[in-house]
Every structure is written in structure tokens, then in C-alpha cells.
């Protein structure tokens, strides 16, 4: 048998005593002469001189007042759980098997001298989605001379270089700090569409492929016909980050670094080579940026980056080495898809809304009452009240509604029953 606290017992006995005094002093009136009013703060018992009729309503002042609940505070630490944190992961690319294996460029880009937009399907098709931008930066702007008009000459690669140096490395002078202090005069970058990842690109779960080109090494001229995929090559380069977090241990422990190095390897086999080896580039998971060392791309993929004071086709070259990885050659029978996942931290907290037997037994809904004088629609609710709980709201200390939830189906609340409703609230 459930034990009641002393305060609860005292409250019940006081109510019974007051009600007996009320009954005896009024000649033990019948239920037809008793009325109950319900509002947000109180349950009020009123005595009627005569049964209510539309013609002769006479109401005395309330004799018995018993508080009820519309709001209830969370007081005990057991009323809510600790904040639960977990990471929700999903494919970065909205493609079959979450793998991107076709690359197309946009022809409507007015800033093509600065970057090139890459799509998952031909522009204008229903399946075409913006995946990432690619760009080229040089410390002196070489390979990007652009005649804006007869009076203005700009160097987009120089602007890009300075912008990346400041934004991602917090430096205004010097070079891009690639691993082991290598190179740094020029780079190629991949900027993933920010709509693809709510928070970050999942470290340890990204793999990209690049293929070698056949391109002219003459730096004094550059046309679209001077480079093309190396159709006889059997080589394809597979790159991953060096976090080693395929099992998400680092992610779950919230030990994610600001950046990782991009190295040779695969998600199945891990990193190829030693940890002290040079890297292909740098990846910033939270910013969705990959910066590749231009010298390494020249040496491996034969980009032969144009670094003369002319308008080169360096960005187009970089796109070609990306798209060429999706095609087979005379000596290469496999293709290389791009694979990546996004990761988002989800914070939730569970609130236990405890409804005790003496609480929330009446409703303040207008359908609970009837008539011009708000009588209980069903008189047996005086002794056996019941209500249906359909909605739970969470309020702050200023009684402002901050969260609301509908129950799958109404819960019947009787005066001799208790319920616990679990409300799980996402905090971010």
C-alpha cells in the first residue's frame, strides 16, 4: 500500500473537515445545489440557493477552495536526464550508394576566373545537384592574368591565395603551411557545398580519387587542347585524411582537430606509407575545405600548372583530373568514385512529466462545462473526476511556451491514477 506524506494526509483531512462543516451548516444540500468552478489556479465549490434555471440563478460566494494544477515545475534532479550527445551521420552526396561518380561543370558561372562549380549531373537536368566548387591560388597570381577591361588587369589567383591564407590559416603573410614545410607557392582547393553538411564532414570517412593527365609542359601558352586525360595510364590515386577515425572514436569523444592532412590511402586499407611522409594537402572538416599542394599534383597527376604571367587553364585542368578518375582507360579497368559522410552533433534531454493522483484531474477546456453559469457537464465528475491529456507543453520561468508535443493518442487521467510522460527535447 502506498504511503502518503504527512503534509498530504493533513491536507486531505482539512478538506474533509471543511466540507463536513459546509454540509452541516447548510442542511446537507444535495448535489443539485453544489457547483464547482474551475480556472487556471483553483477549484471552487459554490452553494446554490436554488437549482440553476435560466430564470432564477442565485449563487453564493465560494465556501471551499482547493488549489489545482495547470503548470507544474520540475524540481527534483530525477525529473530530467542529463544532456545526451551523439553524432548523426549520413552520406554527403545525394547519390546512389552515397557515392559521387559523375562530375559536370556549370556554364552559367560568371566568376569562372576565380572558381568552377561542379555538379553531379548535366546542368539543367532534374538530378543535377551542386556538390562543390574548385579553385586555384598562387602567391603572386601567376597563371591567372585577367583583362577585366581596357584599363583594369586583375590576378584572381592572387586574390584567392590571400583569402585562403587569412581565412583558414589566420595569416596575412607567408605561404600555405603544407606538411613538413613543403612547397606552398600555389594550391588547388575543393569547397564543398555547405548545404551538404550541417556541421562537419566526418573525419575518417572521406575518400576521393584523382587521375593523371597528358598536358603540355610549355608554360608560355595554354589552351583547352593542351591537356586531356591520360588514356593509357593504369594509375589512379586514392586519398583519405589521416585522422584514422573510421570507427568514429575521435568524433564521439569530441576530439576532432581543426584540420587533418590528406594522404594516400583508402577507407578499406587505411593509410599507405608512414606517418612522417609528405602529404597531398590539408582538409578542414568543419569548414568543408580541401587544399591540395599544386606541386604534388604536378608531380603525380601531370597537371603542369601554368605559372607564367598569362591567363592559364589551371582550374579546368584540375577538374579534368577529377572527372578522369570516373573513367576506365586502356590499362585501367577500375573507376574511382568519391565518397564522404557528413556528421552532426545532436543534443537531447528527456523530461519526466510526473502526473500524480491528485493532479490534472479536471480540465479547463470549455467543453468540460455547460450552460451560462459553467456547470460541470457531467455531475458525477464531482466525486470521480477524469480528464484526457492530449498535449504537453514546456515553459520557461517566465511562463513562455518553448516546446510543445502532441501525444499519439489521448491519455485518460483518473483521480486514483498516476502517469509519467517522457518528453524528449532536442536542444540544437
Structure characterization notes:
The chain is mainly β and 428 residues long. The chain folds into three domains: 68 residues, no CATH class; 97 residues, no CATH class; 235 residues, no CATH class. It contains five helices and 25 strands. Strands 4, 5, 6, 7, 8, 11, 12, 15, 16, 17, 18, 19, 20 and 25 form a 14-stranded antiparallel beta sheet that branches. It has a three-stranded antiparallel beta sheet with strand order 1-2-3. Strands 9-10 form a two-stranded antiparallel ribbon. A hairpin with a 3-residue loop joins β16 and β17. The longest helix has 20 residues. The chain starts with 5 loop residues before the first helix and ends with a strand. About 3% of the residues have low confidence.
In brief:
This protein has 428 residues and is mostly beta strands. It contains five helices and 25 strands. It has helices at 6-25, 156-169, 249-252, 294-301, 314-323; strands at 34-38, 42-47, 64-67, 84-91, 99-100, 104-105, 115-119, 130-138, 146-149, 152-154, 186-192, 200-210, 213-215, 227-229, 237-241, 260-266, 270-271, 281-284, 289-293, 338-355, 369-370, 375-376, 386-395, 401-414, 419-426.
